[in-house]
Amino acid sequence: MKSKKRFIERVHALFSRLSLRNKLLGSMLVAVLFISIGIAFVARWILVSSLTNELEMRGSAIAHSVAERGASYLLDNDVPPLLSLIFDEVRLHERRDLISYIFIENQDGMVLAHTLTRRLPDSLRRNRLPADASESIRLLRDDDRWIYDIAVPINEGLYRIGAVHVGLSKDHIDNLVGKLRLTFFGFISGVILVALGISSGMTRHIARPLTRLTGLADEISRGNFDVPLAVNGESDWDTSACPAYTNTDLPCWHLDQSTFSGEVRRCAHCAFYHEVKGDELVQLGNSFRNMVWSIRLYRQRLRESEEKYRSLFDSGPEPVLVVDLGSGNIKDANPRAEELYGYAPGEMLGRPFVSLGPQVNAECLQRFQEETVSGCLYYPKLVHYRRDGEPFFVNMHACPIAYRGRAAIIVAAVDITEMMEKDAQLIQASKMKTLGEMSAGMAHELNQPLNAIRMGSEFLSMAEEGVEVAPEQRREVLREIGVQVDRAAEIINTLRAFGRKADLVRERLDLNKPVLAVLSMLRRQFELENVRFDLDLAEGLPPVYAHNNRLQQVFFNLLTNARDALDAMRSEAAKRGVTISPCIRIRTGVSGRQVYAEVEDNGPGIPEMVRAKIFEPFFTTKETGQGMGLGLAITYGIVKDYGGDIHIEGEEGSGTVFRVMFPCAPGEDQE
């Protein structure tokens, strides 16, 4: 069983290594051979059977003729006429080779006459004619030859008076069959030769275009798309005959018609895409030719597109990187990126993307690897690092692409360090201006603990003048002096922290903390201006990701902006002789996954037409010299830096509410 299976596998392997032409030729020859063999066997059976039956019928006819003519001689027991009769039948030239003998026997089975020159062998008398049979045919053997013995009765009326035996030579019949077989074999051989010639021509006609297609496909697989496209013997196409090949702005209407809406357009006389008459092989060659031409056309367009966008990639003014998502390594970088990050040409390739900015870059890669985003990501004001470790700020865009068959992202980074420095300087200048405006209130705030310290020191100096001071009073005065010193130090530290230049960092922060810090600086000054505060600060707020110093700037700007609106309203009311009670309400709380803080005033409100511009830089409704219009623009930028949002509510004439919202910081186990 195994050897048979191994043989079949070898035959299959040998057959698979043959060319298509040899396979077709071999298949046709095998088919013709099997058909011919089948026809030969069928024809041989039919012809041999027919020839044998025909010869047996001739022998039977001779026997019946002898029986009819020799009946009278047999009745008279006249032997000489019987001998003459049977010898005349045997000696006919067309029967000499066929008839081996004729003998006649009477009803008792005694042989009266025969044509043999020797004694009739007993082996030839074994064909006994049954009583009711009209003839009997039996194959007998006489020494080294076979003979068909045909026995026919001799009747006189209703009575049988003897029998005639005619022996037909089987060798003669076999010779006739052999000649017939040889003739038929020659005919079959001729048919096979003719079929071989026809099959060879047909297979050559079939295989020639396929061989050309194979050679053309091999050249194309090697990247040679400039190989001539002549497959069926026709001339190759001239690319200059198609305007779409040399002009990428002009579409090929035959190929690109599906990309255009409306009526389908076609060239009046397309030099390439037309119907070719011929068989299936011609149609196949033409279709392959069209396919290669399409590939060549779009390869030309792709090459031009790659050259165009490669030049844009290399000459772009902004740094651009290509990062492999699987490995997280940089696969390509334009010269501007190498210059910005301080690397030599080609040195950035293969380096980890997270080495440029560990935390956010790793988060960006993870989000694309986990397919949690389908579009582009934008990361503003990130800290990246140059090769020497120097930090700088960038705005980063990351979009998914396919790069050389692999998933990747293309990253564009914009250096905003200089802009950040200018913004920081602008914010710091705004702080300094604010501190100057707060000087009166801060002086009053510091005078209170200083006066208390002075009074305590004067009280203690009375003991030096002989006035008796109780120990409990001395301890109380000293404790109060310490409290006032701590209060003054807290005021100074708050002012110093507020005036410090803030960095763009994130920390877990309670939103009430910057609110209370700003109130500690402004409360007294606002109360001197008859502005009262109404606080509703929620306890146990979830932390947010922000920075205390920068959020102090946000709430400081919102409170001073509310104070200015109340002052303007109070001045207008004083002109009309009306007295109002200015109030600023501050609320904090949680709404869903957002922590919010609201600053509300009972001022004149903001007109609808002004709200759309209120956060624009240098936009102000104040009189000239009263402000530069940067406070709310700075506030908006700081809130956006920490992923928050700011809204304005209220109607004109009914006060204004500024609502600042920040997303809750994730738990420490989720960071």
UniProtKB/TrEMBL annotation:
Cellular localisation: Cell membrane
EC number, as in UniProt: 2.7.13.3
EC class (word): transferase
Catalytic activity annotation: ATP + protein L-histidine = ADP + protein N-phospho-L-histidine
GO-annotated cellular components: plasma membrane
GO molecular function annotation: ATP binding; phosphorelay sensor kinase activity
Histidine kinase domain location: 441-666
UniProt xrefs under SMART domains: HATPase_c (SM00387), HisKA (SM00388), PAS (SM00091)
Predominant location: membrane
Position of the signal peptide: none
Domain HAMP: 204-236
One Pfam family of this chain: HisKA
Domain PAS: 305-354
Membrane-crossing segments per the record: 24-47, 182-202
UniProt keywords, alphabetically: ATP-binding, Cell membrane, Kinase, Membrane, Nucleotide-binding, Phosphoprotein, Transferase, Transmembrane, Transmembrane helix, Two-component regulatory system
Topology in membrane: Multi-pass membrane protein
Family matches, as PANTHER family: C4-DICARBOXYLATE TRANSPORT SENSOR PROTEIN DCTB, SENSOR HISTIDINE KINASE
Protein name: histidine kinase
